[in-house]
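Q: Hi! First time asking for a complex rather than a single chain. Here are the components, and I think there are two in total. Is that enough to go on?
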Amino acid sequence: MKRLLATLGAVIAAVGIAAPAQDAQAQGKTLTLCWAAWDPANALVELSKDFTAQSGVNMKFEFVPWPNFADRMLNELNSKGRLCDLLIGDSQWIGGSAENGHYVKLNDFFAREGIKIDDFMPATVAGYASWPKGTPNYWALPAMGDALGWTYRKDWFARPDIQAAFKQRFNRDIAPPKTQAELKDIAEFFQGREIDGKRVYGAAIFTERGSEGITMGVANALHTHGFKYQDPNKPYSMEGFVNSAASVAGLDFYKQLYKCCTPPGYSNSYMQEGLDAFKSGQVALQMNWFAFFPGLHKDPNVGGDRIGFFVNPPGPAGRGSQLGGQGISVVSYSQNRTEALQYIKWFASADVQKKWWSLGGYSCHKAVLEDPNFASTAPFARDFLTAMGEVVDFWAEPSYAQLLLAMQKRIHDFVVADQGTAKQALDLLIQDWTKVFKEDGKI
Amino acid sequence: MPRTLNTLAERAAAATPQAVARRVRGLSDRAVAWAFISPTIVLLLAINIFPLVWTIWLSFTNYRANRPNAPVRWIGGDWYTDILTNPDIWVAMQVTARFVIASIAIQTVLGFTLAWLIDRRFRGHGVWTTVILLPMMLSPAVVGNFWTFLYQPQIGLFNYMVSFVTGVPPSSFQMLGDVTLSPWAIVIVDTWMWTPYVMLICVAGLRSIPEHIYEAAEIDRASAWRRFWSITLPMALPFIMLAVLFRGIENFKMFDMVNLLTGGGPGSTTEVASITLKREAFEKWRTGYSSAFAIILFVTVFGLANIYVKALNRVKQR
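A: Yes, that's all I need. Here is the structure of the assembled complex.
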């Protein structure tokens, strides 16, 4: 018995000594977290100070502007670089990063540390964390919920002269649009109008060619018109879904919106150009990611009472918003895996998630989103919840980049460069995608 | 009295440390020559020849740099067939050809005209030469960025200048977003930047023409027009052709300016071959495919340049 007690004492002493020793080991270590350079990244820097205070692990950040983010980070992963210990990678990277061994699989870690993936919103788990889709294999923790929404100039909508002119033209009151058709009406109404002696335009939408811009933008129109990536019963079968009559209508709609209602020279514009157009008082409506809404709401020129927010309005086929957002992953090539996992554990806690939201990050944790007061915490909070309940994501296949670039080309060729018809563009898109899936052995 | 070291060789021999001198003593001239050039050859093999051979090998495989764990399979000439039968690739090649031809034609005419004017050696021609050469000294990244602003329909100076001259409202046309105008927008920028280079080579050509030939022509009462057609142009032609060769090769590979100005858009209107190649290699990660495409482009440029150099040599021998 004495021996047993002695052994037990020794074990307790060892654990007692080991725990501070582990902390001591962490002291002085530095983790590098890689992400895109945008507003939420600044909030994360602020939030991570708590982690450093708690763990003694210093945090370093590598933020890359969005247009170069994918190129830079995918290069880093493909070359097995050790720059990033933690990576908040785009949702579509999950397939490739999981299959090519860039991300650490987190299932065992979650089980060991008691992290429940069910604590996060299902759409975000499906979108940011799991691969293959729909399976319980987790490669990331949902970190930043996001979707494509809209902002509008509330102050312009409130002007009596605008209200009267709108009512006269459309025989209804001007208000945030309830349908895609109404959205276009409003954009058309403002296009070229003089407000306070300045010519303004209808809408800033995504038309960027190089990375993912126009694909993300057109998705909001396509999904609400009935576009589907594939036959739900026959994976990778796209004929009649990608190029259905409803999809063609959605694509035609987006082109009309581009032609009728965007500012001059708006042929290659993405999130930053949209922000510029809106902040400079050029447009009445702006398509952009919810991630930017806290910053826009604080903007001294167009924020506060002057800005309003709305979810992508439904179209003939119902609701749908393009999914944005990212999960946080541990990079396999990191030499600080223990500390990186420690960060994930810390980040997954409900308290940290609450603070994340309060600082301007979009938490995906149910403790935040299902809080009865959540909708009143920010003017866009309710819309964010609605949008996250209807999100649709692009392909997350390992070949997502090929699929994405094919769509960029076909959509830009049709919408901006006026080549062919919507049906032809979508037919060609099916040909491109089929070729990619054949090369991958999926068909 | 010690002997004076007169020649350079003697001085070098005297300065060589004894240990080194002992080691190289007895080496043949050929061995010494090899010793000097071998570092360069090794470097050349490492950074030029090996990557080329490696690229050729990759072009026959299904290798993808983003899938390091996937087995690399030999697929023969499949990528070459695929590329040469792909209509999108042919469109990119046509876009490239149109850009090369248009930009070189304009730059040659303007460059030679400017060179001819500068060669008049008028008062202040030195200052003007410097001013004209300035765009060439700028980084393409800087040029691409500031021309993007100049072409901006609402605030761009270019649109305002066109508006001032033609009366067309500045925001009624977009140089970079319009299918018809965007190829010309790139040609304008490339011409603005590189005409001075053509001019510089042409000036060298014009100044190499011996003065006595013009004097003889004047004695024969040849008109200025006749002197230009019979002396100036034929004698400057090898230089002009050289400028065309350099610009042709450069513009065939044009990437930075197009990438910054239009990114290949609108649609694929300005997607030159190098943009397509970059997308295939570093965005789609089709390494084997893009290697094959790079080899095709290399052979095309190399073949065309060789034909051209032969023509240039014939002109020089006339």
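A: Residues 8-58 of chain B form one domain. Let me know if you'd like any chain examined more closely.
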